What does this fold into?
Amino acid sequence: VSPAPSAQETQNAENIGSENVQIPSPWVDCSTLADAAALAGFDFTVPEELFTGASNQTIQAVEGEIIQVIYSDANGNEIGRVRKAAGSDDVSGDYNDYAENETADVGGVSVQLRGTDGKVFVMTWTAGDFTYSVTVENGMARDTALGMVSALK
It folds into this structure.
């Protein structure tokens, strides 16, 4: 009769063949929106001060696909992010279910708003050949959110 395997032997047997492999992020940090545009293949116009309380911007792009700008406060906490990509898919990355879903017209553009308790957390729309999204960590007033639509190009 063989002795029972030790806890360490059992753990070693479980670890065999299970490597910790991570897929590299496709996002590339960019110094400027012009750098991101060169990588993505299209321009993205974003106002310098889009979110109240934001003191930092992180600009990123995925080659030939998408540009995003992440706004954070002085402590590094994300306040919100904006994205632009070719096509018409939802590129927000936010797949939560929200109690409130609405479509609004902003200068002839149909904007989908998702939120809770009267606050907008996600906005998406398509204009021309591009799709846009705005996500807000703590939500924002509907009018403030809709004001961003014409500012992002």
Summary: The helical segments are 7-15, 33-40, 142-149. The first strand starts at residue 28 and ends at 30.
